[in-house]
Design brief:
Blueprint (H helix, E strand, L loop, with lengths): L1 H20 L7 E2 L1 E5 L6 E3 L4 E8 L13 E8 L22 E9 L5 E6 L7 E10 L5 E6 L10 E4 L6 H34 L1
Parallel strand pairs: 1-9, 3-10
Antiparallel strand pairs: 2-4, 4-7, 5-6, 5-8, 8-9, 8-10
């Protein structure tokens, strides 16, 4: 009886651990074909530039492989070069703890055919190197498959985002105008002082 109780407890703990940890990236099938419009090395400006992402089911897989797919989430993900020494961007196999893909591009109902969306890079996206990944979810909200715009090592088809610096063109123009006004005022002050000095000498 004690042995049976121990085995039952072990099974329950194992199941609980799987539920708590959720899906792992290594367990997912790469059944989606994903492409992003930025070219290799292209720099997009946050809050200004747009990109187009397309995705579809990889037809080399058997028919029905995607029968459980209900929704797709497309995300902007950090490339390895922008994860070095940044624990808040760390890649973890346990998807509930993974921090690779922090920016959602779009969420849509799943269809196997050609899908596309055009997205303006959000203002809060930091300067870094990125790629695009799409996750497929089942009716329970579990991740069941994926696809990405780069290779398995995440070294190809990477692009960059340049974050907003906090300065605005109008502020720069105002700063230049103010500086020019200050210089003109300074010369005017010296001119008036010299003129006063000459008038006092003539008297």
């Amino acid at each position: 009886m004690a042995v049976c109780g121990f085995l039952l407890a072990s099974v329950l703990l194992s199941c609980l651990a799987q539920v708590c940890h959720g899906a792992t990236f290594s367990s997912l099938q790469k059944t989606l074909v994903v492409k992003a419009s930025p070219t290799e090395g292209q720099v997009l400006k946050a809050g200004e530039d747009r990109m187009t992402v397309t995705w579809s089911f990889n037809q080399t897989f058997p028919a029905g492989t995607d029968s459980a797919y209900k929704t797709v989430k497309v995300k902007l993900c950090y490339a390895p070069i922008s994860q070095v020494d940044r624990a808040w961007r760390k890649t973890v196999d346990d998807l509930s703890k993974d921090k690779t893909c922090q920016f959602e591009v779009v969420k849509k109902s799943y269809t196997a055919g050609n899908n596309s969306t055009t997205w303006t890079v959000e203002k809060d996206v930091p300067t870094a190197t990125y790629f695009v990944r799409a996750y497929a979810y089942n009716s329970n909200g579990d991740v069941v498959a994926y696809g990405q715009s780069t290779d398995a090592h995440k070294t190809t088809n990477l692009f960059q985002v340049q974050a907003i610096t906090g300065r605005h063109v109008s502020l720069d123009i105002a700063s230049v105008c103010f500086s020019a006004f200050s210089v003109v005022s300074l010369f005017g002050f010296f001119y008036l002082e010299k003129r006063k000095a000459r008038l006092s000498q003539q008297k």
